[in-house]
Amino acid sequence: MDGLKTNIMWGGRFSRSPSELMERFNASVDYDQRLAEHDIRASMAHASMLADTEIISMSDAEALLDGLQTVLTEVRNGSFNWKISLEDVHMNIENRLRELIGPVAGRLHTARSRNDQVATDFRLYIRDTIDQFDHMLAELQFAFARKAEMHYDLIMPGFTHLQPAQPITFGHHLMAYVEMLARDRGRFLDAKQRLNECPLGAAALAGTSFPINRDKTSLALGFSRPTANSLDSVSDRDFVLETLSVATICSTHLSRFAEEMVIWTTPQFGFLNLSDAWTTGSSIMPQKRNPDAAELVRAKVGRIAGAFQSLILVMKALPLAYSKDMQEDKEVTFDALDNFATSLGAMVGMVDNMEPVPERMISAAGCGFSTATDLADWLVKELKLPFRDAHNITGQIIVLAESRGCDIKDLSLPELRDIAPCIPENIFSVLSVENSVNSKTSYGGTAPHHVREMAQNWIARLENRT
Ligand code: ARG
Fold this sequence. Notes:
Elements: H1 20-26, H2 29-32, H3 36-52, H4 58-77, H5 89-101, H6 114-150, E1 155-160, E2 163-169, H7 170-195, E3 197-198, H8 214-220, E4 225-226, H9 230-235, H10 238-264, E5 272-273, H11 292-315, H12 329-353, E6 355-356, H13 358-365, H14 372-383, H15 387-404, H16 413-419, H17 433-438, H18 448-463
Parallel strand pairs: 3-4
Antiparallel strand pairs: 1-2, 5-6
Helix pairs in contact: 3-4, 3-6, 3-8, 4-5, 6-7, 6-12, 6-18, 7-10, 7-18, 10-11, 10-12, 11-12, 14-15
């Protein structure tokens, strides 16, 4: 049959082969061969179920399973010969099975369609990928938490509007990312739970008249249950969209730290050093050390969010059930998720590798009147002033310091008392950055002992994960 010009899978209805452009345009095998192992696993579950329900004989099922095992070996050792004329991963595998075991291969497609096949394969792929991401995200959290524990009391400026706002600790800043990544992991796991239903057995769109057992295939493939509506099973890709949207959100988190690395490694800031392993030089400017890896992580959001955008536009307004449009789901998704995984890996490497420059961070922490809020708070507590009055007095003190070109602590007590006669002598103690961070003992605040405790709790949780 292979010698026929028409397609082996539907040759009965067709009298000529497709045009060369149509063949290339229609084919997805160049990229969907990545689903081969999932496809074979699902076919094995399907073949066993067909024998179990006596839809095919036990000996036919054994021949199918043996043949599929051989195909799996060929796929794994790279000897499988993918053919564009066989369009996609499903037809390539079925065709190879026929070459290996003969016409009995034709029984495998009983009570199924490529529509439920591809939906099943893609769910399996996304499920595995989410597991891989969860592992990598935990590793990244661990890298952040370990650095945070090391630098729980290293004082640096905290920013709002990228202007110095209040002193914080480097550890506190890093722990912010541990929390973001925890939510990202939660979102991935939610998506995984929702996608974990088995579409196999929905067939083309309507279900099947064969007495299949969908619970059995669902269980064999590790799904929680079979999907409940055959049309929905083959026509939705919300599980891909959801995963891409979580990857997009998470990659924005990565991009924010990447951006901070870019800024902090400039000589102007000088807060952070990244070693040769994560930077590049310039072919013309010998002094340069460029944070390329951080820049790439920052940029990858474009691709990942782009994949979401691409697929949402494919899916929008598609009438039920399957349409070939949906084949466009895979290439962008593979690309986006591959790049997301690489970004995560690079981020783990950079976070492990980065070294803060304490003297730069500490000296910058006191700049820009960063303890002005502490002064206002202190006036409230010490003199029982309303906060607005304390804010106003502090504002006048800053105006005076600015006009002198000095810091608040360089003003004399008489000068301060000209502004507010009630100012006590011990005012200067409140102005230090150490006092500032130590005083932020509210839950979730930057007080170093809190930061250390949070980091240690997270480290213990992450070390104990299974
Ligand atoms: N390669 C196809 C895809 O990824 C498989 C499903 C084809 N189904 C069909 N009715 N043509 O969407």
